[in-house]
Amino acid sequence: MSKWSTLLSRSFLESNARERAVGLVDEGTFTEFAGPFDRRTSPHLEVLGEAVEFDDGIVTGVGRIGKTPVFVISQEGRFIGGAVGEVGGAKMVGTIKAAIDFADRIAKDFPNAADEEKPIVAISFETGGVRLHEANAGLLAHAEVMDQFQRARGKVPVISLIGSKVGCFGGMGFVAAATDVVVMSEFGRLGLTGPEVIEQEMGKDEFDSADRALVYRTTGGRHKYVMGDCNFLVEDTVAGFRAQLSELAKLPRSEFEALRRIGSEKLVEKQLEGVALAAELQPKDARDVWVHAGNPDPVSLAMAPVPQFRETVKRLAL
Amino acid sequence: MALNTLEFEVKTPDAAVAVAKPVHFGVVGSGDLEVLMSPLASGGAVKVKVVTPVTGFDALWQRVLEAFVGSAKLRDVSIEINDNNATPAVVTLRLRQALAEAAA
Amino acid sequence: MKTQRTWDTLAADTAERMAAADKFIGKGKRVEAKDVVGLLEAVIRPGDRVNIEGNNQKQADFLAECLLKVDKSKVHDLHMVQSAVPLAAHLDLFEQGIAKKLDFAFGGPQAGRVAKFIREGKLELGAIHTYLELFGRYFLDLTPKVSLICAYEADREGNLYTGFNTEDTPVIVEATKFRQGIVIAQVNKIVDKLPRIDIPSGWIDAVVESPKPFFIEPLFTRDPALITDNQILLAMLALKGIYAEYSVSSMNHGIGFLTSAIELMLPTYGEELKLKGKCCTHMILNPHPTMIPAIEEGWVDTIHCFGGELGMEKYVAARPDVFFIGPDGTLRSNRAFAQTAGHYAVDMFIGGTLQIDPYGNSSTATANRVAGFGGAPNMGCDPKGRRHSTEAWLKCGQELPSMYEQIGQMQRGKRLVVQGVETFGEGREPAFVEELDALKLAKNAGLELPPVMIYGDDVTHIITEEGIAYLSRCGSMETRMAAIRAVAGYTEIGLKAKPEETRRLRDAKIVMTPEDLGVDRDRASRDLLAAKSMKDLVTWSGGLYEPPARFRNW
What we know:
Distance between the termini of chain B: 39 Å
Number of domains of chain B: 1
Radius of gyration of chain C: 25 Å
Oligomer: heterotrimer
CATH topology of the largest domain in chain C: Glutaconate Coenzyme A-transferase
Strand content of chain B: 25-35%
Largest sheet of chain B: 5 strands, mixed
Number of helices of chain C: 21
CATH class of chain B: Alpha Beta
Number of strands of chain C: 19
Largest interface: A-B, 21 and 24 residues
Number of strands of chain B: 5
CATH architecture of the largest domain in chain C: 3-Layer(aba) Sandwich
Radius of gyration of chain B: 13 Å
């Protein structure tokens, strides 16, 4: 792996799961849980004669950013598309659990600890959801992760980082949506049903999954930022994601609830307004919504450099 | 249908290079592999274990690994590989990168 | 006594056919889309030689679909003479008996059906050509009677604008029209005024506005994100061991990822080797998006293009010092001229292949696909008619120890023909084989000749991750075969290399490993690419490059 300092300037998109995990936290602070030397490969893949990986495609561990303990989960898209199976899923659950237990211990032993000394969880998603080879275990893992989110809520902020090649789709799309904060780069994609599945179900005329431009302007970071499905849009470097994570680490824990996009009656109402707007607007393309949000020239806006985009874009107000 | 596991030992006459610390390198992407390289006192031999879904390339694996171990003059090392159909060029490249990391 | 004979039977025949078609043709030679099938039935006779324009890029797809709808009792057994048959419709014509015989250059996606149809007797194969060779035969013994071509725009008189994707149109039209044949054009749009006239209306018999713009394949777009470390290693070897070694200034680059890697490494590794101004100054090349960084950094003097490339229109138009731009401000590509330059004028061809045999013959053919040649063999060969000299061409000729055996004490240069391959391709298929699949294909499809893309005597260099074999320095077949074995890695061919023999070849600089060349393998990483993504290419172009939707991740 490259030196930590050179990792920072690297593209988040081009980096692998371990490089992302190590680069997100302070230099030399990352300790891996159930890493490759533990050789916890998937027993299911082995039986099926499919290639295995020593970390089962998910890097987990803990490090620090300044004073904040950061529990990191980083999915590897190059291994079976980042699909989540039993081992990887258990690693995710165990890591969030460890963060919650740690938070409980701090609360008990150090009741006066400052917010920035309390743990956070950062999940770098790169996945299409359940690993079909071990579907039951994979699905169960999704449910268990959601369960841990409920335990963590109000106590340990869970932050999604999405800037990888595969994006975040399928069951993990739901999981990401259920976290407190979503941070994306313009190359990150977030959705429930993946582009190929939409095409398969609705036909090529409805959604052509080979049209990458269409896929990205419907599910990509810029669009999700306009829609409010993503809280922060960062540049595609490890340092870009890390800087946003550092800021969030310092944020008073009470302020995270306001960053959520789902998970309360009020937010459900807001979502329903969005549904009503869609019915009224009948958009033919994601860009129609940009125009409605107050961006008369969505094409040049989509091409503008990220900092300029963030400054000038009007986000959809519901 | 289960995975194919290959195990063999390579001994190079004038081998002198040992790795100081265990290292991990690579991702099991399509056409790629990961390798664990760790120190292992084994009387100068290098122990290799390859796990791969592909069968029928046993002799090729042995040749590629022997050539790598021989040219790097490795001794007392354990090499564990999870493979997903990497070509010999990729295998050699990843082994070199892993060794460079072990030396760093 | 001299018998009376008429000398204008061709023109008379055409006039008769056009009279039958008169009812379909309106003012400005305009034909309605719904009348095209009728028009074709009127002007095409059984057994005619017919050309449907299309190559590896643009396609007269609407006219091809219309030809498929003709009444088979009126139009059948056609002899198709055309560059390429990549559309399903091209082969459906044979399935339905509308066409019978085929002379072509490139099979593309239909390569499997071509082989199958030959085997089943549905398609009688004339020959597989190179583009230039087939163009030559348009003016010799394969002149089309009717050509169905495509252009961007026509005006009210029937003049055509073929613009950026002019490609094969001038050759087809000239051959057809000047033998009194019939030319029918599909255009995307009929306009009042064309940007410029590429084909005069006098050479066109009918124009139809097609319901959809003609199809173009962005065949030369390579996403930098997909370039691998090993391709970068091969590119480093090429730049140091060949570009720098021979000071290669003019060349054609093949279509694969190796040459894309080279293009993207000119501003990085090439700069480091101080090749700017010396190498890659003159190129015969489609508008490869991966050339953008090198062009922007001032490497390139001239690029002439076979065809266009989707999304590169604005960028190319904004660089008239480099590309061939008309007075109207847009590129005019021309396959015939680019192939001529590629054959005679460039110093080097470099590209990938699928298989190389122990003698150095190479082929991209697989056992069940008649893929054809396109233009590669015309560039991947030593042009025997070349008479001007350049540094690279002379040096390569001077190296050849067997030159004396051929022409005695006489100086002559040689084209560099470089094949870059990883020793094992996808699915661990070896690139070095005892026998090319081209031989199996010849047997399976009943071809007279195995389709060899580049013959061994033309190949001067082979690059693999093991190093470079300088075949230009081999005096005998024995040495050549040993040099090939030495870079064939762990393939069965490579395992036959004898270490002491390889040592001798390395000492003689006939084989050079990365270490011999001073190429640091550990630097072979994507960090050497001037652009790592499509977005980077757009940024390099200052927003002028507009990649097709399927290549955009924004």
